[in-house]
Structures are given as structure tokens and as C-alpha cells.
Amino acid sequence: MSKTDLLFELYSNLSTTGALTFSSKSLVNKMLSYSDLSDAKLIVEMGGGDGSITQGIVDRLAPDAELLVFEISTSFCDAMKKQFPQENVKIINDSAENIHLYLDGKKVDYIFSSLPFSFISPEIRDEILRQSRSALSSSGYFIQICYSYLLKGLFKKHFSSVKSSFTLKNLPPAFVMICN
């Protein structure tokens, strides 16, 4: 899928992508700087999109680690399956609220999310966050990109610790919420 096709998908489904453009390399690096993937065995990404965050994770992924990428857009999934053919990377065309169906009882070390929580119904976003909290290991982190600081209150309802960071090096500028 070309970048033009990916941009068309992005804009034609703005309510599910929730972004005006794809995440910048600076934002991806900022998000991933709050993790140590060298010892992580199971990582989840919610909202794979064009694969920019996925690529950053794959670049840091230990050879024996597994990455599950949830994406509801079939077009994005098809493109990511071609971009990430590795056996330890699973592209899942399903809603993140169904994470529990894919874990086989395993606990997750990191969940990286770029889901547009501002556009998701309260019931579904609460279920996604409940499932995420339940899926994490006791030392696990949920790390979220968002464009509104006001979402910090939403994450505080589900996680005991929520820290935030901000970067101007993205269009639009973005927050990274680090939750555990």
C-alpha cells in the first residue's frame, strides 16, 4: 500500500484513526524511551495504523519476544502484514477490547497505544482500559499517545500511576501518558 493510499485510509476513517497524520519518528522515539524492550517477552500495540510505532518496536524487539498488533482497519492490517512478515509479529484485525482472546493466559510487559480515546464510546474505552490493566504483568506499563492532556483523568481511573510527557516534534504536538 502506497503512502497516498495510507493517507486516504487515514482521512476517510478519521473517527477510528483519530489522527491528522501518522506519528513522527520523534514521537515514536519519545514513546518508546519509556520502555526497556530488551527483556520484554510479550508486547502489545493497539492501533497499528501505518506501522510507524510498530517499526520502532520491531527495531528494539528481542529475538525471542512476541509482538501483537491490534488494528481495526483491514487496509492497514493488510499493509502491515506485508511490512512485518516476521513470525514473532502478529497483526490482528480486531478491536483492542478483545485483547484477552489472544493472550493465552500470558501477561504483557508493555502495551503501546495510539488509540483515539476521545472518539471511542465511554463503554468501549473503559473496557479497553480494563482489559489492558488486567493483561499487564505487575511490572508492566501501558504507554499511550494522545493529543489532549484532559485524557490523563481517564487513565487515572484505571491505573494507579500516570505520568505524562509532551513533545512538540509531531503534528499536532502530542502527550505521552505512561501508566502502571
From TrEMBL:
InterPro entries, per the entry: Methyltransf_25 (IPR041698), SAM-dependent_MTases_sf (IPR029063)
GO MF annotations in UniProt: methyltransferase activity; RNA binding
Keyword Transferase appears in the UniProt entry: yes
Biological process annotations from GO: methylation
Keyword set, alphabetical order: Methyltransferase, Transferase
Superkingdom of source: Bacteria
Record's keyword annotation contains Methyltransferase: yes
Domain Methyltransferase: 43-140
Protein name per UniProt: Phospholipid N-methyltransferase
